[in-house]
Amino acid sequence: MTKTYKIAVIPGDGIGKEVVPEGIRVLEAVGAKFDIAFQWDEKDWSCERWQATGRMMPEDALEGIRGHDGIFLGAVGWPTVPDHVSLWGLLIPIRREFRQYVNLRPVRLFEGVRSPLADRAPGDIDFMIVRENNEGEYSEMGGRLNKGTPDEVVIQENIFTRKGVDRVLRYAFDLAQSRPKKHLTSATKSNGIIHTMPFWDECFAAMAKDYPDIRTDQFHIDILTAHFVQHPDWFDVVVGSNLFGDILSDLGPAVTGTIGIAPSANLNPEREFPSMFEPVHGSAPDIAGQGIANPIGQIWSGAMMLDHLGHPEAARAIVAAIERLLAEKGPRTRDMGGTADTVAVGKALADLI
Ligand code: NAI
Ligand code: MG
């Protein structure tokens, strides 16, 4: 019998509205082949909605999707709404309310794609970033005193809990365990940040004892960014706090050619709540409305959703289609040096499947 999944679809803003339909097109194509059906529950939660109603999403929004099987999101943010309003009004509440404490972001150099780094070949860059997604530097604790005066004081607190750090580290160790290289790198800054980062390092060292067959190392975030550029072949799984993971996961895909192909999964590993799948990139106001956005990041995010839903072979079929399209010089968008539009790339991938 065909399995039907109920998926909340949030195209959001800007190019989100252009790449999400291509993600759905490819998921429908792979679903037809592997006997998987989707019920798409589309939501208009966005900056447009904020301007009309004063809220990014309705008050009872999350209640309404709590029982869904997944969330497929494009991008959120538009220049007419402050970015902290759009982020804290939509994306962060979903990640927290549904305890999606792992943000998993693959970084891979494909055959047929030119890396901005000289002399890097496919196979040289193939690693996973595990970003803590619920706490850390992205916290609403703090405040502003004497606003706008010479005596202004601004305080922003970081939140690191033992439970929160251990659970994301556990996920990263288990992921490293499942990969041939069995190598885990931790991003830290325990020289400058004297409370939270030494704590992070202690938790990392303690957990490493449970995984004697995993090779571990750690770097301060500043030199780690340099290593991403000079030695991307060193990495297998990289775990970082919310902020460090965010920065590394724009840099990683950039060294593989374009952020336009980078996918991500916001995972609730216990599966008590729906997980959310979205490209790493944002709403790209500079190119929105032109139909030239690269849909591959969205489409690959769809593959991560299928993997999470328990269909690894269907997920692999999508990644294999992306590999073929890129290797065989199929249509590609401007950010990859081509002239194809968003829809042409989506259709080409659906055809390959
Ligand atoms: P961005 O990722 O939207 O754009 C950065 C650059 O990459 C731009 O030059 C853009 O044209 C290019 N780019 C991004 N995605 C592309 C694609 N699929 N194809 C071709 N080119 C692509 O980041 P930016 O400019 O910092 O943020 C724009 C808005 O998006 C802001 O409101 C920001 O808050 C929001 N944002 C939302 C995210 C999300 O929904 N998860 C993540 C990052 C930013
Ligand atoms: Mg980011």
From TrEMBL:
Superkingdom, according to UniProt?
Answer: Bacteria
- Show the catalytic activity: (R)-malate + NAD(+) = pyruvate + CO2 + NADH; (2R,3R)-tartrate + H(+) = (R)-glycerate + CO2; (2R,3R)-tartrate + NAD(+) = 2-hydroxy-3-oxosuccinate + NADH + H(+); tartrate + NAD(+) = 2-hydroxy-3-oxosuccinate + NADH + H(+)
- Cite the InterPro entries for this sequence: ICDH/IPMDH, IsoCit/isopropylmalate_DH_CS, IsoPropMal-DH-like_dom, TTC_DH
Cofactor or coenzyme needed: Mg(2+); Mn(2+); K(+)
Instruction: Please name the GO terms that the record assigns under molecular function.
Output: D-malate dehydrogenase (decarboxylating) (NAD+) activity; magnesium ion binding; NAD binding; tartrate decarboxylase activity; tartrate dehydrogenase activity
Any idea where the Isopropylmalate dehydrogenase-like domain is? Answer: 6-349
| Pathway stated in the Swiss-Prot or TrEMBL entry | Carbohydrate acid metabolism; tartrate degradation; 2-hydroxy-3-oxosuccinate from L-tartrate: step 1/1; Carbohydrate acid metabolism; tartrate degradation; 2-hydroxy-3-oxosuccinate from meso-tartrate: step 1/1; Carbohydrate acid metabolism; tartrate degradation; D-glycerate from L-tartrate: step 1/1
Under Gene3D superfamilies, the record lists: Isopropylmalate Dehydrogenase
Known EC number: 1.1.1.83, 1.1.1.93, 4.1.1.73
Xref: PANTHER family = D-MALATE DEHYDROGENASE [DECARBOXYLATING]
Similarity-based family? Belongs to the isocitrate and isopropylmalate dehydrogenases family.
How is this protein named in the record? D-malate dehydrogenase [decarboxylating]
